[in-house]
Amino acid sequence: MDLKKILPFFSYIYHPIFISVYGTIFYFLVSKMYTYPTLFYMTLLQVGILTLLLPLSLYYLFFSIGLVNSFTEASLKERKIPIIIQAILLFILIKFSSSFDNIPELYYFFFGGFLSSLLAFIAVSLKFKASLHMIAICLLATFIYAISLHLQLPLKNSIAFIIVSVGFVASSRLHMKSHTPIELIIGSFIGILSQVSFWYFWL
């Protein structure tokens, strides 16, 4: 198997638009809160609409009018509007969703996502193209590690898997010539920092 041929695949399955749904499903599975089906479906529906379906619809709108040209590649100029929209939708989610009243872990996970969106926008405003893929995958990896600590669960396989995934995403972005190493590093730092900043409140 030619690894280089499958590397782009990781840029799609770990696209930032999917990370919120991945994090939500992972949390419910490992915390056993999926035993409360109403809470699970309500939370997943809210997260799915605001972080996946609505952004996808807006992406196709932007694509059709020429504001963006690719699902996985975006120039510095093309990033501003999607990042701002992501920040707004995440703010709406954490501000108005009643589901998070009983799930502080997810509340801070999405608050970290909101913070990472703001930091990514600042980077774009400074003409720096931090990797959104690395922000997203590192945010998820840090969340999984934090859940392991918080719930005192031996999630060694999950942590190992997500660390390997981080490596594949980074390799994918380099292989596709989407980013320089420093852009990947800064993206990783933003993703990790966005989660670690809230550990004090829930760990």
Number of distinct helices: 9
The backbone outline, from C-alpha atoms, is globular
The end-to-end span amounts to 42 Å
Q: Report mean pLDDT, rounded to a whole number.
A: 90
Main sheet characteristics: none
What order do the helices and strands follow? HHHHHHHHH
Low-confidence stretches: none
Count of distinct structural domains: 1
**Structural class per helix/strand content?**
mainly alpha
Q: What amount of the residues lies in strands?
A: under 5%
Q: Tell me the radius of gyration.
A: 16 Å
In helices, the fraction of residues equals: over 70%
Question: What's the total count of β strands?
Answer: 0
Topology:
Elements: H1 3-13, H2 16-31, H3 37-64, H4 76-96, H5 104-125, H6 132-150, H7 156-175, H8 181-196, H9 199-202
Please explain how this structure is put together:
There is one protein chain. With 203 residues, this protein is mostly helical. Helices cover 77% and strands 0% of the residues. It has 9 helices and no strands. α2 (16-31) packs antiparallel against α5 (104-125) and α2 runs parallel beside α6 (132-150). The longest helix has 28 residues, at 37-64. It is globular, with a radius of gyration of 16 Å. It starts with a helix and ends with a helix.
List keywords for this structure.
globular, 0% strand, 203 residues, mainly alpha, single chain
What's a concise summary of this model?
Helix content is 77%, strand content 0%.
